[in-house]
């Protein structure tokens, strides 16, 4: 049984140069297939915690969004229930024949299957459909290949591509005859062309790993320098399109690309920002997560994701307006757990609900009430687009990284008046009195770390 849709054929841009297929101008015409396997076939129970089932509608919309993220033209989309996955083609022969006719009539050049395919399944489907076939992993790799801007991002994507291609060299070449070894007729059987191709790929993989190791060492040096001037690092993580870049721009005033598009940004961005009571932090905007994130990408992007592992505070940003927000949150928490980060650690992680401006008052009140759990810290509700709740979020971030606010009253002697400017920049001045003897009495609200710094500076002044 299948539920099919004729997708909107409007195209936001030209065909990506990364796309295989036609040489004609314009976007690549694609058919998007979303196989929905039954619970018995999915094999979800690999952990003690059951995995939430995504709705077919949400999976369909996400698959179409992924296709459009690289300007494909999805001329036909379908959700197909698969009760008995076929080892050769995943889909049944009847469905394969049906899609072959759709591809032919629609002059489609690419078929997206929103499910991991084995090399054999991909090859067989390409023969039956007479079109290039990309599975979910291949599609995400194509998107990342287009989004990468920095040298590090390009290296990471290329490494993931090569690891993916290495497993695809299964009779997909027309020149797999053996290469004769030795000279004349006495040479040995030599190696097959496929073995030669794999060796070339493996050599490239080794070279890229060495280059990425250099990148990792450079990151470690930068991290070590930051620790010498110990600014806390705050990393924003979340499902793709949750609004991370919009929040990053709101907090820092940066101009990071922020669009309503899956994987609008890929390369991580770090900015220094000063919180309301003067605490400086380094804010990190990371790559968005997604369900069934390919293992090739997790491995390749480990150097980038180390920014999350090393962060003093992790903001888990959720698109609370998305009907699938709970399943998305679980996917993010699973990936964070793989990285060694516990999203449930209330000392290190903050759950933030974004896009509350898209909810009506009734749904907003209900969600906020449901989010209050006696065993966990209530989530922070914000709208990164409108700025609602941002001040409260900043205050909580500052409390987490610098301690609770407290009122402090100090009197500075004339020799210590050089600290007055620092106090104004790093605290919330409540009152100031200029005394007749030239001293100044200041009452201010300051974080714990700021109070400790004040004591340290006064001590140095007194002993200087």
Automatic annotation (TrEMBL):
Keywords: Cytoplasm, GTP-binding, Magnesium, Metal-binding, Nucleotide-binding
Keyword Iron-sulfur attributed: no
Pfam families: GTP-bdg_M (PF16360), GTP-bdg_N (PF13167), HflX_C (PF19275), MMR_HSR1 (PF01926)
Necessary cofactors: Mg(2+)
Gene Ontology terms for molecular function: GTP binding; GTPase activity; metal ion binding; ribosome binding
Residue ranges of every copy of the Hflx-type G domain listed in the record: 232-405
Binding site residues for GTP: 238-245, 263-267, 285-288, 354-357
Residues that, per the record, bind Mg(2+): 245, 265
Positions of region (Disordered): 1-59
The keyword Nucleotide-binding belongs to this UniProt entry's keyword annotation: yes
Entry-linked InterPro entries: G_HFLX_dom, GTP-bd, GTP-bd_M, GTPase_HflX, GTPase_HflX_N, GTPase_HflX_N_sf, HflX_C, P-loop_NTPase
Recorded GO CC terms: cytoplasm
Comp. bias intervals (Basic and acidic residues): 1-11, 41-59
Superkingdom to which the source organism belongs: Bacteria
Compartment annotation: Cytoplasm
PANTHER family xrefs: GTP-BINDING PROTEIN 6-RELATED, GTP-BINDING PROTEIN HFLX
Assembly and binders: Monomer. Associates with the 50S ribosomal subunit.
Family per similarity comment: Belongs to the TRAFAC class OBG-HflX-like GTPase superfamily. HflX GTPase family.
Functional description taken from the UniProt entry: GTPase that associates with the 50S ribosomal subunit and may have a role during protein synthesis or ribosome biogenesis.
Protein name (database record): GTPase HflX
Source organism of this protein record: Mesorhizobium sanjuanii
Gene field: hflX
């Amino acid at each position: 049984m299948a539920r099919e849709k004729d997708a909107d054929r409007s195209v936001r841009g030209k065909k990506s140069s990364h796309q295989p297929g036609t040489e004609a101008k314009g976007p690549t015409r694609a058919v998007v297939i979303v196989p929905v396997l039954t619970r018995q076939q999915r094999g979800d129970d690999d952990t003690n915690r059951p995995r939430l089932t995504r709705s077919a509608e949400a999976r369909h919309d996400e698959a179409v969004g992924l296709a459009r993220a690289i300007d494909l033209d999805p001329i036909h989309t379908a959700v197909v229930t698969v009760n008995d996955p076929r080892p050769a083609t995943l889909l049944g022969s009847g469905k394969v024949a049906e899609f072959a006719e759709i591809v032919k009539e629609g002059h489609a050049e690419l078929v997206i299957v929103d499910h991991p395919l084995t090399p054999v399944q991909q090859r067989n489907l390409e023969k039956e459909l007479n079109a290039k076939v990309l599975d979910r992993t291949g599609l995400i790799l194509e998107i990342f290949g287009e989004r990468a801007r920095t040298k590090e991002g390009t290296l990471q994507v290329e490494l993931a591509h090569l690891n993916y291609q290495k497993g695809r060299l299964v009779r997909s070449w027309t020149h797999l005859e053996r290469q004769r070894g030795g000279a004349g007729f006495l040479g040995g059987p030599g190696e097959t062309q496929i073995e030669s191709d794999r060796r070339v790929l493996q050599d490239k993989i080794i070279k890229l790993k060495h280059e990425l190791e250099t990148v990792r060492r450079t990151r470690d040096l930068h991290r070590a320098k930051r620790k010498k001037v110990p600014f806390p690092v705050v990393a924003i993580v979340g499902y793709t399109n949750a609004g991370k870049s919009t929040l990053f721009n709101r907090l820092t005033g940066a101009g990071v690309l922020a669009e309503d598009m899956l994987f609008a940004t890929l390369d991580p961005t770090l900015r220094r920002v000063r919180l309301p009571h003067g605490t400086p932090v380094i804010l990190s905007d990371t790559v968005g997560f997604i369900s069934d994130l390919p293992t090739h990408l997790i491995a390749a992007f480990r150097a980038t994701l180390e920014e999350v592992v090393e962060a003093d505070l992790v903001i888990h940003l959720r698109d609370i307006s998305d009907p699938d927000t709970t399943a998305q949150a679980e996917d993010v928490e699973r990936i964070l757990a793989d990285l060694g980060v516990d999203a449930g650690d209330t000392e290190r992680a903050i759950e933030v609900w974004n896009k509350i401006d898209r909810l009506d008052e009734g749904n907003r009140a209900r969600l906020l009430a449901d989010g209050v759990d006696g065993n966990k810290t209530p989530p922070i509700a914000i709208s990164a687009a409108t700025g609602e709740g941002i001040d409260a979020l900043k205050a909580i971030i500052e409390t987490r990284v610098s301690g609770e606010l407290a009122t402090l009253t100090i009197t500075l002697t004339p020799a210590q008046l050089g600290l007055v400017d620092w106090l104004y920049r790093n605290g919330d001045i409540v009152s100031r009195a200029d005394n007749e003897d030239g001293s100044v009495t200041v009452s201010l609200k300051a974080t714990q770390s700021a109070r400790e710094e004040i004591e340290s500076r006064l001590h140095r002044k007194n002993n200087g």
